[in-house]
UniProtKB/TrEMBL annotation:
It comes from the Eukaryota. This is Uncharacterized protein.
Amino acid sequence: MTTTVGQYAYHYRCPQVFVFDSVHLLVLQFRARDRENIKSPGCPVDCCVIPRHPKYQDQCTIQYALYRLAWRGWMRLSATLANGGSLPVSIGGINRVYEKWSGRPMWEVALGAYEFGQPNGYRRQFIKDQTGGFWVWVDNDGNILAYDTRNCLQ
């Protein structure tokens, strides 16, 4: 099954795929570093099977699973747009990059070493102005360290 679904994921360049047989929703997420890695037998795969009619009160519903798939797709799209020509963000020599399969932003704190938290306690802040506003990275004193406007779809 993962081979066939993996072929769809590869063909459509989407590491998250799902199959619904009117009884169960099967969600697969290939944690691929890139498109070619989806075809690799060693590519880690998250698998979730959700019944149409939940058996337990706190069980994930199909609606919530589809919402999360759409959200993950939005994150990947945002990362693709950010990596595809936006203003790169670097704070104190620490570059922001994006995890390929999820679109989550992370910081390259050293060559090949990544962290998901915000570096050095810096935070992202929205500054409203007459054009609508823009995103910046600020330090603990509110000093602007980097502009992040192009990663925000306006």
